[in-house]
Automatic annotation (TrEMBL):
Its cofactor is Zn(2+). Its main location: membrane. Belongs to the peptidase M50B family. This is Site-2 protease family protein. GO terms for molecular function: peptidase activity. The lineage of its organism: Bacteria, Bacillati, Actinomycetota, Actinomycetes, Kitasatosporales. It comes from Streptomyces virginiae. Keywords: Cell membrane, Hydrolase, Membrane, Metal-binding, Metalloprotease, Protease, Transmembrane, Transmembrane helix, Zinc. The chain crosses the membrane at residues 12-31, 89-114, 126-149, 161-184, 205-230. It is found in: Cell membrane.
Length: 266
């Protein structure tokens, strides 16, 4: 098993390429105003782009683990970017999409199983965990580039709103995933540095970490603080509350809209 995995183990899957194709076509439809319903086009564009970012998040974990010493990630199909290869396709893809639809929040989906006993050194373990949220950060920076580069001239309103909403999903995912809560990547970063006793006591809590975070987000004060932090980061990236709000308004096209975010149709 000394090799770095066969070429087949790294070939990008047709499933992932299909999702990218949907993202490209629906992105084009949003940009050109070609779609009869801009809301449906925004929904398909943002959802497919969100799934692409989930795949890249998990790929980052797997790729870092491969370089860290876990050569089994290739055989498991994690380097093909195929979301159907993940440990829990439901948890990793379906649930995050449902959360976006319900609440406009980026749920981090835990998915790739890394054989940690094959990896030596605490820094490597921390880096493997950090790789996922850093991917969301990179995605947010790319999505908001037109905003902070002041390059929005000629960018259609619907596309601008869609990018703003997509960026907000990446920011929420990055923040949530970076929390030092068992089961989330933020805990994975600090875990190697904790004593064996603490790690053993915390381990049974891991499956409930994400649930606890979402339970806390139902508390109005916590929710206001969390979204206040998200808004602060978004405005630092040049995106206004209005743009994010309109992105979500267009995304949830099946809801009754107040018409405030109506975009002109060609």
């Amino acid at each position: 098993m000394g090799h770095q995995g066969s070429r087949g183990e790294r070939r990008i899957s047709s499933v992932f390429l299909g999702i990218v194709a949907i993202m490209a076509v629906t992105g084009w439809a949003v940009w050109t105003g070609y779609a009869a319903s801009p809301g449906l086009a925004v929904f398909l564009f943002v959802t497919s782009a969100w799934i692409v970012s989930l795949c890249l998040h998990e790929y980052a974990h797997a790729r870092t683990a491969l370089h860290g010493g876990d050569l089994t990630v290739g055989a498991k199909g994690y380097l093909t970017l195929n979301p159907l290869k993940y440990t829990h396709a439901l948890l990793s893809i379906v649930l995050p999409v449902v959360f976006v639809i319900l609440g406009g929040i980026g749920l981090p989906g835990g998915a790739v199983f890394i054989e940690r006993n094959r990896i030596q050194g605490r820094w490597k373990h921390s880096l493997i965990s950090a790789a996922g949220p850093l991917t969301n950060v990179a995605f947010a920076v790319v999505c908001t580039a037109p905003f902070w580069l002041d390059a929005l001239d000629g960018v259609p309103l619907a596309f601008r709103y869609a990018l703003a909403f997509l960026a907000m999903l990446q920011v929420t995912a990055a923040i949530l995933n970076s929390l030092p809560v068992p089961g989330l990547d933020g805990y994975g970063v600090i875990e190697p540095w904790l004593s064996y006793r603490v790690r053993r006591e915390v381990e049974p809590l891991a499956p409930f970490g994400l649930l606890a975070v979402f339970a806390l987000l139902w508390i109005p004060g916590v929710n206001a603080f969390f979204f206040g932090a998200v808004d602060g980061l978004m405005s630092a990236l040049g995106v206004s509350d209005l743009e994010t709000y309109c992105g979500r308004d267009l995304y949830t096209f099946w809801r009754e809209s107040d018409g405030f975010c109506a975009v002109p149709q060609d």
